[in-house]
Design a protein that fits this description.
heterodimer, A: about 160 residues, mainly alpha, about 0% strand, B: about 280 residues, alpha+beta, about 25% strand
Chain lengths: ~160, ~280
């Protein structure tokens, strides 16, 4: 692998750090169930945009870091993130061609599935959720914010020539 | 062009590999504590992110404090001075009692209680898994924090440390669903276990038999740590009983208590070390 092949890694790193920060910023209690899943959205974007670079391995490592930040079981989010990366890389040719609103629906599906599994695992571990259907709320806000995030990240990618 | 078929196959193999790895990791992390050191290092690694999130809040607090008018500060100072005096008077009496207690215990040849050292820790304004009741504090292994260390505040028991990083640690509150604390009723000495319910400010007391309910426990009773389990020293206030309902279908009654510590509004907590004084 030569150096010229990749470019602009710091943009990717920065976007992930920023999404981590947004994921742990304290919100009022009523708003916590509506928190969009920033990390998953950023991950999906990079998987769609540069699947030759951001793969399942990156997704898994990001998931481990997120597990530590979130104080969940080591591997819990790593599992979801690997799954998300797999689906988005496998379908990246189709999803890229979708109009933004259609992409947003795919995002909703992916995020809702992972949050449902998250709730199932937490319940097995003895942490029943306070609001049972909260996994739909998180998917909904993520869906609404996806177009804006997509445009911002695409502009960043083009300006700093990330590939 | 590389054939997309082989590309797809490597992708499939990879995802299977990582999913299996995650599952194994989750099971080992849940069942055994092998990854304690790994987590310590990773928690140290993510501390900058926690620090950055916490920073604007701290700056805001500092700004509002420096913008406070002098008169207000003077008033506050006077109030604190008065409170300090009052506490000192109370402490004089306490010191006398403590000496007497020690002397009596020596007469009875029973061991004296261990001393304690405390350290103030700030709660970081970062959010964790909302299904659990955990908080992050800004002290870690660098300051001597250890796993299962008791955490209290001015009112009562807060919880215990479950993860330690170098500069920050995670504390499980006593209201967490997986937290159990051996306690006793201060008035009657009845021993029980206070279990968290996963909701805000509620504890349920286990193993209190229906029989003899009316003289063992009543609403308003104070619960203190019983010193069993060896993590908490004896005698820290924990909660007050708010509801006692005999459950005819089961051998044990349903008893609920409300924690004394201000678990949800605290900015600062105290870490406790035992010392052989």
């Amino acid at each position: 692998m030569n150096v010229e092949k990749h470019h602009g890694g710091w943009v990717i790193l920065l976007s992930f750090i920023f999404s981590f920060m947004l994921a742990i910023i304290p919100l009022p209690i009523w708003a916590t169930v509506w928190r969009p899943d920033w990390v998953e959205m950023v991950l999906i974007y990079w998987c769609l945009a540069i699947p030759q670079r951001i793969g399942i391995m990156t997704a898994w490592s990001i998931g481990i870091i997120y597990d530590v930040l979130h104080n969940s079981l080591l591997g819990q989010h790593a599992l979801f993130f690997s799954f998300i990366a797999y689906v988005s890389i496998k379908l990246h040719r189709q999803i890229r061609l979708f109009p933004l609103w259609q992409q947003a629906i795919v995002i909703f599906g992916l995020i809702t599935i992972t949050h449902l599994f998250n709730i199932i695992i937490n319940t097995i571990l003895g942490h029943p959720p306070l609001v049972v259907i909260s996994f739909i709320y998180e998917g909904l806000t993520s869906m609404l914010l996806w177009p804006w995030l997509f445009i911002i990240l695409r502009d960043m990618r083009r300006t700093y020539n990330v590939y | 062009m590389k054939s997309s078929l082989t590309e797809e196959r490597t992708l499939n193999i990879r995802v299977m590999l990582f999913i299996v790895a995650s599952l194994i990791l989750m099971i080992t992390d849940h069942r055994f504590g092998y990854f304690q050191t790994v987590r310590t290092h990773l928690l140290t690694l993510v501390y900058p992110i926690q620090y950055l999130v916490n920073l604007p809040l701290k700056t805001g607090q500092w700004l509002s404090m420096s913008a406070n008018r002098r008169v207000k500060l003077l008033q506050e100072n006077a109030k604190l001075h008065e409170e300090n005096l009052r506490l000192k008077v109370g402490l004089q009496k306490y010191q006398h009692l403590s000496k007497e207690n020690k002397r009596l215990r020596q007469l009875l040849h029973s061991s004296t209680r261990l001393g304690e050292r405390v350290m103030l820790a700030e709660i970081l304004a970062v959010e964790l898994d909302s299904a659990k009741r955990d908080i992050t504090i800004n002290k870690g292994s660098k300051h001597g924090v250890f796993i299962n260390q008791p955490v209290i505040d001015a009112q009562g028991v807060v919880g215990q440390v479950t993860q330690v990083g170098m500069f920050s640690s995670i504390v499980m509150l006593i209201t967490d669903y997986n937290h159990q604390l051996p306690v006793q009723i201060e008035r009657t000495g009845l021993r029980t276990v206070a279990k968290g319910m996963g909701t805000v400010n509620r504890l349920s007391l286990l193993y209190i038999p229906n029989i003899g309910l009316n003289h063992g426990i009543k609403v308003g009773d104070l619960l203190v740590t019983s010193g069993f389990g060896d993590k908490f020293a004896k005698g820290y206030p924990v909660a007050t009983v708010i509801d006692v309902t005999p459950d005819i279908g089961k051998p044990y009654a349903q008893v609920q208590a409300s924690p004394l510590a201000r678990l949800e509004q605290n900015n600062e907590v105290l870490l406790v070390w035992k010392t052989n004084k």
